[in-house]
Amino acid sequence: MPRVVTNASNIQVLYEDNHLVAINKRVGDIVQGDKTKDTPLSEIVKTYLKQKYKKPGAVFLGVIHRLDRPTTGAVIFAKTSKALKRMNQLFADKKIDKTYWALVKNAPQKQNDSLTHWLKKNPKTNTTKVYPKEVKDSKKAILHYKTLLKLDNYTLLEIILETGRSHQIRSQMAYIGCPIKGDLKYGFNRSNTDGGIHLHAKKVQFIHPVSKDPISINAALPDEVLWNECQKMI
Q: Which one, of 149, 205, 144, 147, lies nearest residue 172 by Cα?
């Protein structure tokens, strides 16, 4: 059965101005509608804006980027068509800095490193295959990681994306033997109880497309045992 959500009061707003609104996405939220027919986060945010500003008509909200359903963290939406167009251009020009935190099984061989692979998406299985060299229809993927913390059974990594490919962090980390906790699709041995994975979009930084002010949006970690342990130790 589709999960229908109409109450927008429980979303966590990280940033809002006349042109943009950023939300701390929860596990299970889909950013944009899909075949599940579950209410997407975009519609929940529209409801929030409609209620907050008592808008009588339709509310404009542009989807700028997405996070995978089991992932948490900062998602930015555009409240105006001008902001949507300009933010899309910032993403295309790679002028958006995105920082993620991930809890992985197995510490990577190097404490800090840059990974360059070629990724090819399989739309039938909704998975991404990683190749060490370019193959037909593959796309180059680059990320940079550093080790922040070692727990008893997991390692906390900070990951900065240079490219934004489908399932990039999940597939690249799994390829080097470090699958993300809970990520059955990419080789972790068991699921998390909430159906999510321990991948969190922690920070987004950019120059505001209209005001030209520097913007830094930080998303608090989910209230969960391992994330709370990391928060205490960092």
A: 144
Read off the amino acid at residue 160. Answer: I
17-33 burial string, b = 16+ CB within 10 Å, else e?
A: eebbbbbbbebebbbee
Instruction: Find the CATH number of the domain harbouring 198.
Output: 3.30.2350.10
Do the domain assignments include residue 66?
Answer: yes
Q: Is 68 a catalytic residue?
A: yes
Residue 177 forms part of a structural domain: yes
Judged by average pLDDT, the poorest of 6-10, 132-136, 180-184, 202-206 is 6-10
* 103-113 pLDDT, tens digit each: 999 999 999 99
Give me the catalytic one of 17, 29, 38, 68: 68
Domain that holds residue 143: 13-223
Half-sphere exposure of 138 (CA within 13 A, CB side): 18
Its pTM stands at: 0.93
What is the average pLDDT value for the chain, to the nearest integer?
94
Q: Which residue has the tokens 């948490």?
A: 72
- pLDDT tens per residue across span 119-135: 999 999 999 999 999 99
Total domains in the fold of the chain: 1
In-domain check, residue 2: no
How open is the CA angle 112-173-22, to the nearest 5 degrees?
90
Looking at the domain assignment, is residue 234 inside a domain? Answer: no
